[in-house]
Design brief:
- With 255 residues, this protein is of the alpha/beta class.
- 44% of the residues lie in helices and 13% in strands.
- The chain contains eleven helices and seven strands.
- The longest helix is centred in the middle third of the chain and has 20 residues.
């Protein structure tokens, strides 16, 4: 299963959800890979693997598709071990932006899908963290994925953005990837005591958007886990936020 976490709106918790869902999968014994496509490299930093002059990053994986003077590496060589058993990552790179126009002009939009097909036999689950834009890299991920998960933060901007996002994903499905589906919308950083989040969710459900049943509460524990460079399943396994993430993972796996 290859899952892409995507929303064109920034600050909705894509990287936090990507890392924590992947870490829970790994904790359950599933060999799991994260691919960090965001130039901010938040997933890579979260797992304490952001290093200067690091080799075998996502930048090099894409670069070798257009640099014929270098010896091509096997895709699996880009998968780095993390401190957690069963959890691997292809680290992000802030240099991805400088490659985008070259890749696009040379029609390399299907190259990530080829890499994913090579990686799929090695991993039980693959999670892809994307930038907050439908750019070359996000489109590449959606072309190669089985599903898309959309995190929102339950405000009106998020709701309005879902209309265009749903249409764009449907277009990608029709033109490039007929198996692609929206696996669900995650209500993230959810404030149970406030009226607006519940109102937004009720409206989305009435409009036939598939909002997942598990809401992820707002908690300082997430920021603490960022600082400690540990996913919550390792840092605070009994905390209510961790348990909500575990429940979300179970809900996704049960579909």
């Amino acid at each position: 299963m290859i899952r892409v976490l995507f929303n064109k709106k920034g600050g909705v918790g894509k990287s936090s959800l990507t890392v924590n869902l992947a870490a829970i999968a790994a904790n359950n014994g599933l060999k799991t890979l994260i691919i960090d496509l965001d130039t901010q490299c938040n997933s890579t930093q979260y797992l304490d693997l952001l290093q200067e002059n690091q080799e075998n990053t996502i930048f090099e994986l894409f670069d070798q598709t257009i640099s014929f003077h270098i010896k091509r590496k096997d895709t699996f060589e880009f998968c780095h071990k993390t401190q957690q058993p069963n959890l691997f990552i292809i680290p992000g790179s802030c240099n991805l932006a400088e490659l985008e126009s070259k890749l696009d002009s040379r029609h390399k939009i299907y190259k990530l899908r080829e890499s994913l097909q090579q990686l799929k036999p090695h991993f039980d689950r693959i999670y892809i963290d994307t930038p907050p834009a439908l750019n070359f890299y996000t489109l590449s991920a959606l072309i190669g994925a089985d599903s898309c998960i959309i995190p929102i933060d339950c405000d009106d901007f998020s709701r309005q953005g879902l209309y265009s996002l749903q249409l764009e994903i449907e277009e990608i499905k029709q033109d490039h990837n007929e198996k692609l589906k929206i696996e669900g919308i995650i209500a993230n950083q959810f404030m149970a005591q406030a009226k607006l989040p519940l109102q937004i969710i009720d409206e989305l459900k009435k409009e036939q958007f598939y909002v997942l049943n598990t809401f992820i509460p707002q908690s300082i524990k997430m920021k603490e886990s960022h600082q400690k460079k540990k996913p919550l399943i390792n840092y605070a396994p009994k905390h209510k936020l961790t348990q909500a993430l575990v429940a979300l993972h179970q809900e996704l796996e049960a579909q």
